[in-house]
From TrEMBL:
Species per Swiss-Prot/TrEMBL record: Pseudomonas libanensis
Keyword field: DNA-binding, Transcription, Transcription regulation
Cited function: Regulatory protein of the TOL plasmid xyl operons. XylS activates the xylXYZLTEGFJQKIH operon required for the degradation of toluene, m-xylene and p-xylene.
Transcription as UniProt keyword: yes
Domain HTH araC/xylS-type: 201-299
Record-linked InterPro entries: AraC_lig (IPR032783), AraC_XylS_family_regulators (IPR050204), Homeodomain-like_sf (IPR009057), HTH_AraC (IPR018060), Tscrpt_reg_AraC-type_HTH (IPR020449)
Lineage, broadest ranks: Bacteria, Pseudomonadati, Pseudomonadota, Gammaproteobacteria, Pseudomonadales
Protein name, per record: AraC family transcriptional regulator
Length: 306
């Protein structure tokens, strides 16, 4: 399994939500910071997007998508000077998940929100406050297909609607991440950039295949086929963290999943991930997760039982 598929498969979707927006005339809507990862796609019409902390407004047209990987307020507007209303004012009257604003005959948007919890930090840390995916490329064809299907499901609800929309939403999320990776100018260090590099990606696959191994920079550099110093520098430039720091973070990603399984003891998790003692594992876990493995298990137990 490739690293992106593996990492997404490890993420627990605490909840997901999909909705639509139809608008027309002069309109402007303020949205609160979303819980989790938010993406929207324009089906019809055009609008302006404003994101908290981003200086310039962004013009979006039909087929464009945007991803908000951080908790930031944003606005959608037909006119930048028009006074905005709060999203609650229209979404409380939504029908089949679709809200209406103004004449509701010129603009159609669909949106999804995934709450992966703290486990998603590895995947989404390093991405900008907003990632915009423009329409028109060959790579966007799958995205556009999923976009049209979700739009159809939202406007024509039928049996099995919720599960179809959820799976289509996951397809759109993966495709947005794929397209973001190949767009020019996306060179800020991130996990996504690291796995797209052939040499660094090969070492990440090796770490994922054998997380309990006593990895060293030298052994990983051999897999990459470069010198130790070149590898260490390139790994940090691409991922934003040192190679052995990544090994630690990946182990803790696996640990959080295992800790949610009540029948797996902390000692067995420590051994499975290559730690000689419970205390060494606990120290490593607390460094990344800011709590002990036992505290983490107690905290997530109510969620896993829902």
């Amino acid at each position: 399994m490739d690293p992106l598929s593996e990492t997404l498969s490890l993420l627990n979707t605490h909840n997901s939500f999909f909705a639509g927006l139809k608008a027309g005339g002069d309109w402007a809507i303020d949205f609160p910071p979303p819980d989790g990862i938010k993406f929207n796609a324009i089906v019809e019409g055009t609008c302006w997007l404003m994101v908290q902390g981003v200086e310039q407004p962004i013009r979006l047209t039909a087929g464009d998508c945007f991803l908000l990987p951080r908790k930031r307020a944003f606005s959608l507007r037909s006119d930048l000077s028009f006074p905005a209303i709060h999203s609650d004012a229209i979404y409380r009257h939504a029908v089949n998940g679709i809200a209406s604003c103004g004449t509701a005959d010129e603009f159609f948007l669909i949106g999804g929100r995934f709450d992966f919890g703290e486990e998603a930090r590895l995947l989404f840390d390093g991405l900008p406050p907003v990632a915009v995916i423009k329409s028109g490329s060959d790579q966007a064809s799958v995205l556009n297909w999923a976009l049209q299907r979700i739009a159809h499901e939202l406007t024509n609800p039928a049996l099995g609607n919720s599960i179809v929309v959820q799976h289509l939403g996951h397809i759109m999320l993966v495709q947005v991440l794929r397209i973001y990776l190949i767009q020019e100018g996306n060179t800020a260090p991130s996990w996504l950039l690291a796995i797209s590099d052939p040499r660094i990606g090969a070492t990440i696959q090796a770490i994922h295949a054998d997380p309990a191994r006593s990895w060293s920079v030298e052994s990983l550099a051999k897999i990459a086929g470069v010198s130790r110093s070149t590898f260490a520098l390139r790994f940090k430039q691409k991922s934003g963290v040192a190679p052995l720091e990544y090994v630690l973070r990946w182990r803790m990603q696996l640990a959080t999943r295992l800790l949610k399984t009540n029948h797996t003891t902390i000692s067995s998790i420590a051994q499975k991930l290559g730690y000689d003692s419970d205390s060494a594992f606990s120290h490593a876990f607390k460094r990344i997760m800011t709590c002990s493995p036992r505290e983490y298990r107690e905290r997530v137990a109510p969620i896993s039982q829902q």
